[in-house]
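FAQ

Q: What does a record look like?
A: Structure on top, sequence underneath. For example:
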């Protein structure tokens, strides 16, 4: 048997060198993997994904609404809280008499806000103001007596404007706000455009000029905004007002305080006929609602009473068409939450019911928040914002059950 071959010294050194290189590389890989594993294990648990699954709107089935529209003139109704407005037919701009003052008062209170219960700035009556009163008296315009040097507050002028429909107060307020009447009228028309009053054009602040034109539907746009102002709403509920020189002067608004009537304004000229915008409050489906109705172009021996009655009759028939529906229900699935290959439902925490009208849609928007794996059942993961007309509500959204935590392998890989 021959002897085992022996490697030469250079070959033995090369073999040992290769073994050391392999060992060092192995150690480096193990070390790198260890560092990577430590980093991954110490890293924060990743944010889970949240996906909305609910429909973004709730539709109320349409049905025919029958209202007692007046046989003459134009009329319209609105329920601002639901975002509903309905007209009697084709809109055509017509003279609106003192309903013009709805815009005059809106601009004054917009430009010179008057907190409820406060009187506002004090204005001293001038010869120009006296001349306005005298002219209005000669022309048989609605007016309130003034004297040079008399001091009236912003609130008193608004009371005379809205309660007794004083045309001279409309001019006084216009000059105070804009410097002169033409500039104020320009502001009225610009604002009408902004409010979407497409058929409206103003020629003066009082409505005595038959060039001040609008429609019943347009008038309700500004009336709704007026009634949002607590000071305006408090003034149009007054049956009379007492002023320093004019004394106690009464409202021209018919049916005030009757069957829930809380205002707002009437008007009459030969060109316009009898006009009225009425606001009533009703308890409908367990909720309080304000209903607006406008009537223009009425005739008769007691034309303001006629216009007021027709507007009130419309409002009385609106509430029977107002419904209520759940816009979201407790337990309704809103979103799904995914983590580590698992899916968990998220549901609404409560039921919200809103006032409705045939054919309207409520909007629903889910707003999520970041949560982490392992969150317990009932954890709030966001909210649903609900909107229908002016009605708003927010409902919390919670996990139906706990989210699983990632396993060690999932965290590593």
């Amino acid at each position: 048997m021959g002897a085992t071959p022996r490697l030469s010294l250079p070959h033995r050194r090369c073999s040992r060198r290769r073994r050391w290189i392999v060992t060092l590389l192995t150690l480096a890989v193990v070390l790198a993997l260890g560092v990577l594993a430590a980093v991954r294990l110490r890293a924060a648990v990743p944010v889970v994904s949240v996906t909305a699954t609910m429909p973004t709107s709730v539709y109320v089935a349409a049905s025919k609404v029958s209202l007692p529209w007046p046989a003459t003139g134009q009329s319209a109704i609105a329920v601002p809280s639901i975002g509903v407005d309905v007209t009697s037919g084709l809109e055509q701009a017509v003279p609106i008499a003192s309903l013009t003052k709805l815009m005059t008062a809106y601009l004054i209170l917009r430009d010179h806000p008057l907190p409820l219960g406060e009187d506002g700035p004090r204005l001293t009556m001038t010869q120009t103001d006296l001349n306005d009163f005298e002219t209005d008296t000669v022309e048989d315009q609605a007016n309130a007596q003034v004297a040079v040097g008399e001091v009236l507050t912003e609130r008193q002028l608004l009371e005379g404007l809205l309660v007794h429909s004083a045309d001279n107060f409309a001019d006084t307020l216009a000059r105070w706000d804009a410097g002169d009447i033409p500039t104020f009228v320009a502001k009225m028309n610009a604002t009408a455009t902004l409010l979407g009053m497409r058929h409206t054009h103003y020629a003066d602040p009082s409505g005595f000029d038959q060039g001040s034109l609008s429609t019943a539907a347009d008038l309700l746009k500004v009336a709704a905004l007026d009634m949002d102002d607590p000071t305006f709403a408090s003034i149009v509920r007054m049956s009379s007002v007492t002023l320093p020189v004019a004394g106690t002067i009464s409202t021209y608004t018919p049916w005030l305080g009757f069957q829930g009537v809380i205002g707002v304004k009437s008007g009459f000229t030969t060109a316009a006929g009898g006009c009225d915008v009425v606001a009533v409050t009703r308890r409908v489906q367990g909720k309080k609602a304000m209903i607006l109705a406008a009537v223009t172009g009425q005739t008769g021996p007691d034309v303001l009473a006629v216009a007021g009655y027709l507007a009130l009759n419309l409002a009385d028939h609106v509430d029977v068409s107002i419904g209520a529906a759940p816009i979201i229900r407790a337990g309704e699935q809103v979103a799904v939450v995914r983590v580590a290959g698992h899916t968990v439902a998220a549901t609404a925490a409560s039921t919200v019911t809103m006032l409705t009208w045939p054919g309207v849609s409520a909007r629903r928007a889910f707003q999520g928040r970041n949560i982490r794996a392992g969150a317990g059942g009932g954890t709030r993961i966001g909210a649903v914002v609900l909107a229908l007309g002016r009605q708003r509500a927010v409902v919390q959204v919670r996990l139906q059950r706990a989210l699983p935590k990632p396993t060690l392998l999932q965290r590593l890989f």
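Q: Is there anything notable about this one?
A: The chain has two domains: 49-60+325-412, 83-321.
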